[in-house]
Design a protein that fits this description.
Fumarase C, Chain A, domain 2, histidine metabolism, 502 residues, Histidine ammonia-lyase, 2 domains, L-Aspartase-like, 3-stranded antiparallel beta sheet, two-stranded parallel sheet, mainly alpha, Fumarase C, Chain B, domain 1
């Protein structure tokens, strides 16, 4: 059971909840903070004080005073009117992350939500009710209004949800799970939807996948190095010590660990003086990608433990502050950066694929074909990789530099962070396909060279690839191999142990 207090949620805990259905509960200290902030809201309503979103309208309507008798209707109107997202629904795991992150943000105690509303949100999460949330329609400021409104609809018994493998109304999902919908009170609709949890959930899931993919890429690149009889001297520590990026040094060390004991790699001058950049510069490129991942992780960890509402309620002082913590610019930048980095991971992988299949660049059979000419072998897999890499380049165009005013120019600068996150997630997906293609090609090259010459580390990786993609002895539908291997890279735990001494 994971305790949520709004301050200490980790990436590993997010993964445990999303991938392994670990249950959560609000900590006792957090409940105390939630109750105190709620008391401030109720005092504002009882005294008829002016407070944005509590006794006023929203956005351009912030100067419209709402009578006390209408504050409940104000909140449900907000949810219904803002639930106008479009496009394919977000994946269930992303939605689960959204529920978790919103609960954690509300647990900080700056939102003014009632304890029973927060508890229902936690119950929906723990009972695996998945609100149907369209993926498009958020500007990333004021937060993720449209996506979070679709999430909130289910809490009031409206909208749609996936539950027990079926799509149904939000009300039916709650009923079947033994839960009762809530009736929103003052400020609660705004508390549920004014935040960055859609972009952050998409970004967190994309990051978790990218992190594993980047480490796996080191192993696949090492297998390619052996398939091409690459030169290990470029990975020796001396050259990396004089350009002291820790991530570059770590990648070089990992590559040497992967190929330690190999009878397929070479040294300078044995076959050639130096290798092409896509082999020789693996530490420099993969290391730079690790730098980006560190930056992205740092920003996501801050955001998943942040209060991103407006207004924020400070119970100790009684202050209600209208600010801009809902603005997604930090995550927009991070997601654009993640997309750029993963585009490069795929780009250099595709260049290694080309070196594996192009007979003008190696001494292997053309396109690794069992019978070149009669059988095309892996020729077209490089086409597919090139197509995905090219698509990544368009997706990597930064979303964070764009802005369109909204709400009659009251909200005149927005982040487009959710678009950046969606694009980054798509780039990660494409890049995994490219890496799967490289893995297929490198395993085939290793078999042609003689897999018994592989290092212990890459030998285990080769065996894992072969457990999913059999040796190519004649042409077949390689799309199925690519899909299976890519899916395994996403859903299964791959051993990233390179076999080197600790």
């Amino acid at each position: 059971m994971i305790q949520l207090d709004g301050n200490r949620l980790t990436m590993d805990q997010v993964s445990q909840v999303v991938h392994h259905n670990e249950e959560v509960q609000i900590s006792d200290i957090a409940w105390d903070s939630v109750r105190k902030s709620r008391e401030v809201v109720e005092l504002i309503v009882s005294e008829g004080r002016l407070a944005y979103g509590v006794t006023t309208g929203f956005g351009k309507f912030s100067d419209t005073v709402i009578p006390a008798a209408d504050v409940e209707e104000l909140q449900i109107n907000l949810i219904r009117s803002h639930a106008c997202g479009v496009g394919e629904p977000l994946p269930g795991k992303v939605v689960k992350a959204m529920l978790l992150l919103r609960a954690n943000a509300l647990a900080k105690g700056y939102s003014g939500i009632r304890p029973e509303t927060l508890q229902l949100l936690v119950d929906v999460l723990n009972r695996n009710i998945s609100p149907v949330i369209p993926s498009q329609g958020s500007l990333g400021a004021s937060g993720d209004l449209a996506p979070l409104s679709h999430l909130a609809l289910v809490l009031v018994g409206e909208g749609e949800a996936d539950y027990l493998g079926q799509r149904m109304s939000g009300g039916d999902a709650l009923q079947q799970a033994g839960l009762q919908p809530i009736r929103l009170q003052a400020k609660e609709g705004l508390a549920l939807i004014n935040g960055t949890q859609a972009m952050t959930a998409i970004g967190t899931m994309a990051y978790l996948e990218a992190e594993q993919l980047a480490r796996l890429a080191d192993g696949v690149a090492a297998l390619t190095l052996e398939g091409l009889r690459g030169i290990v001297c470029a990975f020796l520590p001396e050259s990396h010590q004089v350009r002291p990026y820790p991530e570059q040094q770590a990648v070089a060390e990992r590559i040497l660990g992967w190929v330690e004991g190999s009878r397929l790699t070479t040294k300078q001058g044995e076959l050639r003086t130096q290798d092409a950049y896509s082999l020789r510069c693996i530490p420099q490129v993969h290391g730079a990608i690790q730098q980006v991942l560190s930056y992205v992780k740092d920003k996501l960890l801050i955001e998943i433990n942040a209060a991103t509402d407006n207004p924020l309620i400070f119970s100790d002082s009684g202050k209600v502050i209208s600010g801009g913590n809902f603005h997604g610019q930090p995550i927009a930048f991070a997601m654009d950066f993640l997309g750029i980095a993963m585009s490069e991971l795929a780009s250099i992988s595709e260049r290694r694929i080309e070196r594996l299949v192009n007979p003008q660049l190696n001494d292997l059979p053309a396109f690794l074909s069992p019978n070149p000419g009669l059988q095309s072998g892996l020729m077209i897999t490089q086409y597919v990789a090139a197509s995905l890499v090219s698509e990544n380049k368009t997706l990597a165009h930064p979303s964070s530099v764009d802005s369109i005013p909204s709400s009659a120019n009251q909200e005149d600068h927005v982040s487009m962070g959710t678009t950046a996150a969606r694009h980054a997630a798509r780039i990660v997906e494409n890049s995994r396909m490219v890496l799967a293609i490289e893995a297929i090609c490198s395993a085939q090259a290793a078999d042609i060279r003689g897999a018994d010459g592989l290092a212990p580390g890459t030998g285990r990786l080769h065996n894992q690839i072969r457990s999913i993609v059999p040796l190519i002895v004649k042409d077949r539908v390689f799309a199925q191999d690519i899909e299976r291997l890519s899916r395994s890279m996403k859903e299964q735990e791959w051993s990233l142990d390179n076999g080197a001494p600790a």
